[in-house]
C-alpha cells in the first residue's frame, strides 16, 4: 500500500539538518470529521462541514473581538508529514514540482493555512468551515482575514501612500 511516507518515482529527498527549536506552541487542537488523510479534502471549502478549533483554556481571552470577522486565517501543524522532499510528484500528474511550488503537506515546516468562514464562537471553541486537516491536528494560530483587517495603529512613517 502506498502511504504519504513513501517516496514516488521522480521524487527527490535530501538529508536535512536536525531542527532547531523555533519554540512553537500549539494553542489547541482542531476537531474535524476527517479521521485520516484519505478522508480530508485537498483544500477545505467554506461550504464544507463544521470543524472546531478547541483552544487550551489559557488562550480563551485571546478570542476577544474575533467574532467581528466573517473570515479567519487558520494556521495548523500538519504533524503526520515527512519533511525532507525537495521535489514531489503529485498523484495523478506525470509532472514533478519543487516543494515550494506546491501546497502539499510535505514540506520542511509542515504549516497548513486555510481561509475559513466563522460560524460561531462558544466557550473557547471556534466553529469554522473550510478546513482540510485530520481530526486532532495541532492548532498554531488564528488571525482575522487580512483583507478584512484594518490595522489598529496608523501607518508607520516609512510606509508610502
Ligand atoms: N490548506 C492547507 C494549505 O494549503 O496550506 C493544507 C493543504 S494540504 C494539500 C491538505 C492535505 O493534507 C489533506 O488533504 C491531507 O491529505 C493532508 N493532511 C491533513 N491533515 C494532516 C496532518 N495532520 N498531517 C499530515 N497531512 C495532513
UniProtKB/TrEMBL annotation:
CDD domains: UPF0066 (cd09281)
Gene this protein is translated from: tsaA
Cited Gene3D superfamilies: YaeB-like
Keyword vocabulary terms for this entry: S-adenosyl-L-methionine
PANTHER family the record matches: TRNA (ADENINE(37)-N6)-METHYLTRANSFERASE
The family this protein is said to belong to: Belongs to the tRNA methyltransferase O family.
Name listed for the protein in its UniProt record: tRNA (N6-threonylcarbamoyladenosine(37)-N6)-methyltransferase TrmO
Keyword S-adenosyl-L-methionine: yes
Keyword S-adenosyl-L-methionine: yes
UniProt superkingdom: Bacteria
Amino acid at each position: 500500500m502506498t502511504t504519504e511516507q513513501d517516496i514516488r518515482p521522480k521524487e527527490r529527498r535530501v538529508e536535512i539538518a536536525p531542527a532547531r527549536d523555533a519554540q512553537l506552541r500549539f494553542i489547541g487542537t482542531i476537531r474535524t470529521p476527517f479521521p485520516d488523510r484519505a478522508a480530508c479534502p485537498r483544500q477545505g471549502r467554506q461550504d464544507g462541514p463544521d470543524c472546531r478549533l478547541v483552544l487550551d483554556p489559557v488562550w480563551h481571552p485571546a478570542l476577544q473581538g474575533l467574532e467581528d470577522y466573517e473570515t479567519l486565517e487558520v494556521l495548523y501543524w500538519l504533524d503526520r508529514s515527512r519533511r525532507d522532499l525537495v521535489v514531489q510528484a503529485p498523484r495523478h500528474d506525470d509532472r514533478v514540482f519543487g516543494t515550494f511550488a506546491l501546497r502539499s503537506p510535505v514540506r520542511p515546516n509542515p504549516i497548513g493555512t486555510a481561509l475559513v468562514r466563522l460560524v460561531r464562537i462558544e466557550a473557547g471553541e471556534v466553529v469554522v468551515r473550510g478546513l482540510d486537516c485530520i481530526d486532532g491536528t495541532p492548532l498554531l494560530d488564528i488571525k482575522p482575514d487580512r483583507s478584512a483587517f484594518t490595522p489598529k495603529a496608523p501607518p508607520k512613517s516609512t510606509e508610502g501612500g
